[in-house]
Amino acid sequence: MADMRRLALVSRASSLLSAPAQLAYDLCKGHTSAELIRSRLGLLNVPKSAAWFHASSVGECALAVAAASAINEAQLASDEDILSSALLTSWTNQGTIWARRRAAPQLNPGIKVAAVDAVWNSPRAVRRLLHRVQPKATFFVQSELWPSMISEASSFGCHLAVIDGRMSERSLRRWKHYASNVARDMLSSFNVVIASSESHAARFKNLGATNVVVAPSLKFATAEEKTPQVDEELSAALQSRKTWMAVSTHAGEAQVIIEAHRRVSELFDAPPLLVLAPRYPEQCEAIARSIDRNVMLRSKGRSPLPSTEVFIVDTLGELSIFFRHLDIAFIGNSLLAHGKGHNFAEAAAEGCTILRGRSLSHPQNSNTLWLCRVVIESGETVLSRSERW
């Protein structure tokens, strides 16, 4: 049984460290708008919602939408009012923007969805949000386990669930070593933990989760979402040339990719096109200025010109368009010594040949290694879909 008094005490203590750290992060990123601060403090006027989904960033928001879609479909099939409205919170501004643009179109018209920046890990801030939203259920995506959120949501009477649950070996060791009792209190508060694999389920159970079930990762479900409409001009531009893409690249990786593209271009009479999608859109203009080749930003032009050598995607929610039209995708955060690699489920599901750096073999990156085994066993990355290369 969970010791709720101990969990509440720990949530207050943890907020003394985590809330200032989260504030410092926002300040370093230049996120100082009045709306964001009000959202972090739980002071925004958000509509009442039947469910609260909390996610980390864009990828996790997509998982939350996939879960909401599944609940939505169950609601329609049973004629029960399971999920009539939902609030989606994200730690990153990119996640919030993506959710505002993409969440509603993914769901059936009967459901109302709102998206705001997440509250800080502070009991008072979480409490304010709960009293405004009045949720009946709270869903935490993957590994978003914050003591204040869990403690306050449980005290508020919400049903708690982890969806697409992930627990790495490293996280397990840290929880066991530093806060074993707290982890047990948190996880035993959940009505259900839906783990993405048997190994993740075993780690959740090891920490004290009681009602643990295994379901296929929602990462693959997100690849089947409704793809944004792509105009014929962009489609033709992508299909008319040898084109590859590099996505979710971090600082320092773009330069390596550009040099690789320069060398690849020397092999062909007609230079191929590189579609570059940095992890953080705010870095795109600086990257564009640093490239001594013919560059175009997606936000400045609908599609690349015949002379464009590097097409930089500085918009959100459009990667599925490019995965669907291209054959080769490099996945970032895998060239750096400290990189762990990003998830490539969506690219693999669309049949792209996956390129990655050596950081794939990072011993602490069990999530990506697990996904790699799944994709390799399914043969998704053996051949590209066409012979244009």
How is this structure best described in words?
The chain has 16 helices and 13 strands. It is an alpha/beta fold and 389 residues long. α12 (253-265) links the parallel β8 and β9 (273-278). α1 (4-28) packs across α6 and α3 runs parallel beside α4. The protein has helices at 4-28, 34-40, 58-78, 93-106, 123-133, 147-156, 169-178, 180-187, 198-206, 218-222, 232-239, 253-265, 284-290, 319-325, 345-349, 366-378, and strands at 51-55, 85-90, 112-117, 137-141, 159-165, 192-195, 212-214, 243-249, 273-278, 295-297, 310-312, 328-331, 353-355. The model is unreliable at 361-389 (pLDDT under 50). Helix content is 44%, strand content 16%. The protein is elongated, with a radius of gyration of 22 Å. It has a seven-stranded parallel sheet, with helices on both faces. A six-stranded parallel sheet has the order 10-11-9-8-12-13, with helices on both faces.
Topology of this structure?
Blueprint (H helix, E strand, L loop, with lengths): L3 H25 L5 H7 L10 E5 L2 H21 L6 E6 L2 H14 L5 E6 L5 H11 L3 E5 L5 H10 L2 E7 L3 H10 L1 H8 L4 E4 L2 H9 L5 E3 L3 H5 L9 H8 L3 E7 L3 H13 L7 E6 L5 H7 L4 E3 L12 E3 L6 H7 L2 E4 L13 H5 L3 E3 L10 H13 L11
Parallel strand pairs: 1-2, 1-4, 2-3, 4-5, 5-6, 6-7, 8-9, 8-12, 9-11, 10-11, 12-13
Helix pairs in contact: 1-6, 3-4, 5-6, 7-8
